[in-house]
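FORM 12-B: Structure-to-Sequence Request
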């Protein structure tokens, strides 16, 4: 009996060693030569030291039409759980050294198991994607396996945070699992995502294009908006994932963890009193305000390279995680276009799903005009942002910094769509349109007949500002809760978050709304 036990233990040890080698030393060296870590190295770097508990290390595929000799222990994916700064997370990491990280039945079963477990215990799931796609020799079984993963992505959406790191190839049907998840990270030199690759593009359109130019990290960060974050390499990518996790709750039943950065609540910044230029046509950088008011001047921007006319990201106020949405007057004057609206809407919905209060910093002259925007569906995309803010039940606070014109003012978390608290700076301009455009319409005939039309126009513009756009007028009507000094913005926000902590909203009896997708 002892001999049998010893033989079994020796055999088990050998199998575990085999599984840890992945595709073997030669393939591991190739992975490193391409500037990529191995699947196991990534997991160990992502998680707290010594915390990783692996599932299904010995699981193998049934082999499909190929011999069992072609199967590997672990079947090309490492799965399990561990901690990030002491908080439980679940993870799967595809191993490109084993059959190119291709996904088959056993491979997918391992992923599905950790996804199910993550939902069951209420912990985030992090996927490290590096795969050649469906395992061709497993045929429809591989396609069915993808479907099982997609189903779980959808069912887990809004229940636990789902994070995808694309650290190598991700093509064809494989792209849809990351695209359903909440946040996508991509590495700049080694990753790409596309539904159809360069060869198919060449065949169908006769266009020559590289994988990088078709679906590289820069393309998805700047043009398509598919990637929320990009990093130069695997190490920096995994470091950013750890940072993001610290802003998020583990599930939709919890609040995000509090982190005291020893930043005084009552801290003021007199420089903010001079941030907004006297001339409404001059620009400034909204990031100055953002970094001034947040705890420790720490801000994690989401989609930093996409639709830069609006800023979205996570920070803390009084130790509490907040989601921040801000117009950026330094880019396209902060105007809302289709991309900016869709970007902000998705971010707002994520924050609402996971109990993260929303802060909105408003300086918006309107929606982007022009046929390209109209043809591209700016009405539909703008409606997404309106829908998202209106539907959100978390605490919502807005500060009108300068311009808040027309429909864009309403969409940007205004009192009229039931934002909880609306503040304005003395520099705020709240109106149907800007002073120049309004004056040219209201006083058109008078200006045309004047001896000095330009001087008269300036006079009418000043009259319009004092008569119609002054924030005091909105405050007198109750549309603004208070006109505050810019230097006090931080303390006002923190105090408002404190008394909104117990906010409740009656549940609707509908199944779900029909957002204008």
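FORM 12-B RESPONSE
SEQUENCE OUT:
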């Amino acid at each position: 009996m002892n001999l049998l036990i010893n033989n079994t233990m020796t055999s088990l040890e050998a199998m575990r060693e085999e599984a840890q080698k992945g595709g073997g030393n030669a393939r591991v060296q190739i992975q490193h030569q391409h500037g990529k870590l191995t699947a196991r190295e990534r997991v160990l770097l992502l998680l707290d030291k010594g915390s990783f508990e692996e599932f299904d290390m010995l699981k193998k595929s049934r082999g499909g039409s190929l011999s069992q000799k072609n199967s590997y222990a672990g079947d090309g994916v490492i799965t399990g759980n561990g901690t990030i700064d002491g908080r439980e997370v679940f993870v799967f990491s595809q191993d490109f050294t084993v059959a190119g990280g291709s996904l088959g039945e056993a491979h997918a079963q391992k992923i599905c198991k950790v996804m199910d477990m993550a939902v069951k215990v209420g912990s985030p799931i992090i996927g490290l994607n590096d795969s050649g796609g469906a395992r061709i020799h497993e045929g429809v079984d591989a396609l069915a396996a993808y479907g099982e993963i997609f189903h779980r992505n959808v069912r887990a959406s809004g229940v636990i945070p789902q994070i995808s790191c694309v650290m190598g190839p991700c093509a064809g049907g494989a792209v849809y699992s990351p695209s359903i998840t909440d946040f996508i990270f991509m590495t700049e030199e080694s990753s790409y995502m596309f539904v159809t690759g360069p060869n198919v593009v060449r065949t169908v359109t006769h266009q020559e294009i590289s994988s990088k130019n078709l679906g590289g990290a820069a393309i998805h960060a700047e043009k398509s908006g598919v990637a929320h974050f990009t990093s130069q390499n695997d190490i920096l990518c995994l470091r950013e994932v750890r940072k993001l996790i610290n802003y998020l709750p583990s599930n939709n039943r919890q609040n995000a963890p509090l982190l005291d950065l020893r930043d005084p609540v009552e801290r003021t910044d007199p420089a903010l009193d001079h941030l907004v230029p006297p001339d409404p046509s001059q620009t400034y950088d909204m990031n100055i305000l953002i970094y001034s008011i947040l705890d420790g001047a720490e801000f994690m921007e989401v989609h930093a390279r996409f639709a830069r006319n609006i800023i979205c990201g996570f920070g803390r106020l009084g130790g509490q995680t907040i989601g921040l949405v801000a117009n950026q007057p330094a880019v396209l004057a902060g105007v809302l276009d289709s991309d900016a609206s869709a970007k902000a809407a998705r971010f707002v919905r994520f924050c609402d799903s996971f109990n993260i209060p929303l802060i909105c910093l408003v300086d918006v002259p309107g929606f982007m005009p022009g046929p390209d925007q109209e043809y591209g569906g700016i009405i539909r995309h703008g409606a997404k942002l309106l829908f998202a803010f209106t539907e959100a039940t978390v605490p919502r606070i807005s500060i009108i910094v300068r311009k808040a014109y027309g429909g864009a003012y309403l969409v940007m978390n205004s009192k009229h769509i039931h934002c909880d608290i609306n503040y304005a700076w003395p520099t705020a301009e709240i109106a149907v349109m800007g002073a120049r455009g309004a004056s040219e319409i209201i006083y058109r005939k008078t200006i045309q007949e004047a001896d000095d039309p330009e001087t008269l126009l300036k006079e009418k513009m000043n009259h319009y500002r004092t008569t119609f756009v002054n924030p005091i007028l909105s405050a007198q009507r109750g549309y603004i809760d208070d006109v505050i000094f810019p230097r006090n913005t931080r303390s006002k926000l923190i105090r408002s978050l404190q008394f909104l902590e117990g906010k409740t909203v009656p549940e609707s009896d509908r199944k779900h709304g029909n957002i204008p997708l």
